[in-house]
Amino acid sequence: MTETPEPAAAQPVIQRREFWVLMGQAVVLGVFGAIAALIFVGVITFGGRWYSDSQPGWFGGHWWWVAVAAAAGVAVGLVRRLTRLPWRTPGLFDDLRTEHVDPGLVPGVAAVSAVSLIGGASLGPEKALGTMGGGAGSWLARRRGFTSSDAQVNTLAGFAGAYGGLFSSTLIVVMLIMEVARPGGQRFTKALAAQIVSSSVSFGIYFAIAGAVFLGDYTVPPYRFEDWHLLVAVPIGLFAAVVVTVLVGFIQGAARLFDGLKVPAVAKSVLGGAIFGVVGVLLPMTMFSGGDQLKTMLAGAGTLGLGLLIVTLVAKMFTFAVSQGSGFVGGPIFPSLFIGGAAGIVVHQVIPGVPLGLAFSCLLAAVPGALVAAPFAMVLMAAFLTQVGALQTAPVLIAVVTAFLAMEGVKFLLVSRAQARGSPARPTEPPKPATGAAHGE
After folding, report:
1. What domains are there in the chain, each with its CATH number?
2. 327: left (phi over 0), alpha (psi -120 to 50) or beta
């Protein structure tokens, strides 16, 4: 009697040729991402110098800013037309979730985003860099004839290469991409390794040339950890969910407003630029991505006044929504960091018993964590940016998870209500006989 041979064990992923091909591609994408980040950040930094003479208080801007912002709107409209960039393109996190970027959109997104950020739009550079890196990954995968699975891995490696220098932390970059994209199966191992390689190469090149790191950007007063901080983190997280809900309302309202205008696209961009330009004159800290502005707000937390802080917080959400809705292109992460940090300063001003470092770090992470559904990456980012101690990160995690779960609960309720309204009551039909296809057989 012969024995049935046992099936051969599957070859480990890292022992396959395609794995090492992907690692080689990751090195290339890391080099490309670092160069792209250096050039793009250098261009927008140089182009945005016109803002340097602003003051943080009321009417701290200059009225000629309105002309600059409106001119940026004209440039945005013209560049969109020249590059044939559609009015609505996939968002940053849509690209990450689909693990694909259309290479044809890369020139338009990069050019329009550069003009948008130089013109003072309340947006961040991560959309353009992610599109460039992810687009390079998708393009190389198509040229090399990769399978759809490996092409997705290559796209994520392109994102990691673009962000390795920008965020100056391989850990944050990999966590952010993996949380949003959530690759499964064997793609998980490939994607994780490719992103580590790509982001590490990018960070090494970026740091060697620029010497900048995304650490300790926001100096918060040190505070001693207390047990009650864990409890306070829950209402702070709920407050973050409220802030995100208001922000989403602004975004949807602005999108409906500008989409409904029966005017040329250039006119919409000019109107949007004029709006955030006027707001910028009144409240200069609402301009640009918010990175440097949040440092100013944190440094003057005790002198700016509660009224100015609250109005600036709301105005930043408004200008972010207007910038997106009127055709300017940019990312949501940096503006949401500003919104979260500003909300933390407001909490401390209203309730002085809550340490500034606690409120600031919790909301700095909770607002973007709930907005982009990447809670753990934002905890790491807040910890790196504020350099709070190990114990102090526990309330940050609780606040982020609370905000994230609250927003997911709101989404579930809205979807359930929409489904209930869209499904009129009808007589119950008898169950149909099951088929093999219905059970996936």
Report:
1. 15-210 (1.10.3080.10), 228-419 (1.10.3080.10)
2. left
